[in-house]
């Protein structure tokens, strides 16, 4: 871990000083006591009792030179040991306070976030979900109760809340009321079910995706409020089969869906009541010629219009699946947001006049 590596770096110099003083003292005493038949162990013993201030009697006479050596070894050795002790004490104090300080800092960071994603659980599935969110540059908060995983997440630069995601207070600390999505990715189906239930009660508009390893639990999670329930093993099996049957298609989709550096992207765009798309057809908007955007599908309630016709008209609530380069999509979204905001202000002004 980063913290332990920092401790090792800070201890390198004082420990080297202790080792150097021990070596010099041992060699010095051995040279002084060679005429008395002293061994290396005798010399090391004398160095040890001098540095540690134990103060037993000397194995052999010291003489004037020996006393000078003892003063030097004692002074430098004790100073080096105090140096080591001071660093350890500083490290222990830092460990005692850094957790609380980090907690307050994380809480302040989360308090300033909105429209973010909450990820509960940093196991193998949660770890991969965090990587995907990071690559997509999507703001997210991790909830994890395992201290080692929490420290790993902190080292990665993630915003982390250490706690139990099944508790309402922990979800509130993660900003569940302001979040746009939640991923329940723990390895415990019961915990995920409880997380879904709690999160839905705290935020009725939250989009919730839950992990389930037991097919019998999936209907319960959907009833509890999950929008989607994913079985990692089923998805993994389908992907393996798809890679064998349609490798080119899978590679293309993986490239487009992975936003980090992908030249082409597939995105979904929600048509709001103030959207400039409302009431217009694909042909009227001429999205392909103006922006290079291809409309792949329109999700309207429980109906999905795949490859919609040019005369298909957009309606509020439509979820439009489009494909284009990242730059083309960014340009399109920017222009739509400006027009949508203008339409919203105009609508509000009319409503105020009518009132």
TrEMBL record:
<dbReference type="GO" id="GO:0006813">
    <property type="term" value="P:potassium ion transport"/>
</dbReference>
<dbReference type="Pfam" id="PF02254">
    <property type="entry name" value="TrkA_N"/>
</dbReference>
<dbReference type="Pfam" id="PF07885">
    <property type="entry name" value="Ion_trans_2"/>
</dbReference>
<keyword id="KW-0813">Transport</keyword>
<feature type="transmembrane region" description="Helical">
    <location>
        <begin position="38"/>
        <end position="56"/>
    </location>
</feature>
<protein>
    <submittedName>
        <fullName>Potassium channel protein</fullName>
    </submittedName>
</protein>
<keyword id="KW-1133">Transmembrane helix</keyword>
<dbReference type="InterPro" id="IPR013099">
    <property type="entry name" value="K_chnl_dom"/>
</dbReference>
<dbReference type="GO" id="GO:0005886">
    <property type="term" value="C:plasma membrane"/>
</dbReference>
<dbReference type="GO" id="GO:0008324">
    <property type="term" value="F:monoatomic cation transmembrane transporter activity"/>
</dbReference>
<dbReference type="Pfam" id="PF02080">
    <property type="entry name" value="TrkA_C"/>
</dbReference>
<dbReference type="InterPro" id="IPR036721">
    <property type="entry name" value="RCK_C_sf"/>
</dbReference>
<keyword id="KW-0406">Ion transport</keyword>
<feature type="domain" description="RCK C-terminal">
    <location>
        <begin position="254"/>
        <end position="338"/>
    </location>
</feature>
<keyword id="KW-0407">Ion channel</keyword>
<keyword id="KW-0812">Transmembrane</keyword>
<keyword id="KW-0472">Membrane</keyword>
<dbReference type="InterPro" id="IPR006037">
    <property type="entry name" value="RCK_C"/>
</dbReference>
<dbReference type="InterPro" id="IPR036291">
    <property type="entry name" value="NAD(P)-bd_dom_sf"/>
</dbReference>
<feature type="domain" description="RCK N-terminal">
    <location>
        <begin position="114"/>
        <end position="231"/>
    </location>
</feature>
<feature type="transmembrane region" description="Helical">
    <location>
        <begin position="12"/>
        <end position="32"/>
    </location>
</feature>
<dbReference type="InterPro" id="IPR003148">
    <property type="entry name" value="RCK_N"/>
</dbReference>
<dbReference type="InterPro" id="IPR050721">
    <property type="entry name" value="Trk_Ktr_HKT_K-transport"/>
</dbReference>
<feature type="transmembrane region" description="Helical">
    <location>
        <begin position="68"/>
        <end position="93"/>
    </location>
</feature>
């Amino acid at each position: 871990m980063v913290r332990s590596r920092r401790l090792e770096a800070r201890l390198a110099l004082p420990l080297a000083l202790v080792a150097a003083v021990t070596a010099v003292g041992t060699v010095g005493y051995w040279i002084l006591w060679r005429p008395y038949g002293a061994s290396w162990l005798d010399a090391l013993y004398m160095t040890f009792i001098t540095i540690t201030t134990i103060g037993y009697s000397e194995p052999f006479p010291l003489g004037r030179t020996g006393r000078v050596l003892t003063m030097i070894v004692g002074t430098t050795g004790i100073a080096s040991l105090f140096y080591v002790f001071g660093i350890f004490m500083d490290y222990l104090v830092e460990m005692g306070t850094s957790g609380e300080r980090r907690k307050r800092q994380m809480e302040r960071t989360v308090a300033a976030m909105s429209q973010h994603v909450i990820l509960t659980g940093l196991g193998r599935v949660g770890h991969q979900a965090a990587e995907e969110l990071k690559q997509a540059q999507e703001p997210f908060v991790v909830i994890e109760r395992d201290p080692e995983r929490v420290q790993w997440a902190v080292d990665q630069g993630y915003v982390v809340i250490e706690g139990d995601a099944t508790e309402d207070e922990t979800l509130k600390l993660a900003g569940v009321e302001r979040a746009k999505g939640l991923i329940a990715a723990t390895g415990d189906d019961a915990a995920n079910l409880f997380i879904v239930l709690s999160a839905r009660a705290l935020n009725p508009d939250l989009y919730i995706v839950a992990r389930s390893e037991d097919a019998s639990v999936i209907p319960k999670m959907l009833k509890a409020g999950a929008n989607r329930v994913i079985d990692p093993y089923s998805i993994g099996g389908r992907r393996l089969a798809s890679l064998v049957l349609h490798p080119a298609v899978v590679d293309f989709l993986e490239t487009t869906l992975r936003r980090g550096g992908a030249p082409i992207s597939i995105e979904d765009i929600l048509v709001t009541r103030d959207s400039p798309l409302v009431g217009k057809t694909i042909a009227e908007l001429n999205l392909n010629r103006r922006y290079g955007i291809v409309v792949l599908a329109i999700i309207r309630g429980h109906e999905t219009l795949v490859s919609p016709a040019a005369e298909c008209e957009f309606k509020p609530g439509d979820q439009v699946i489009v494909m284009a380069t990242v730059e083309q999509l960014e340009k399109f979204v920017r222009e739509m947001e400006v027009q949508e905001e203008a339409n919203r202000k105009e609508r509000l002004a009319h409503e105020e006049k009518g009132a």
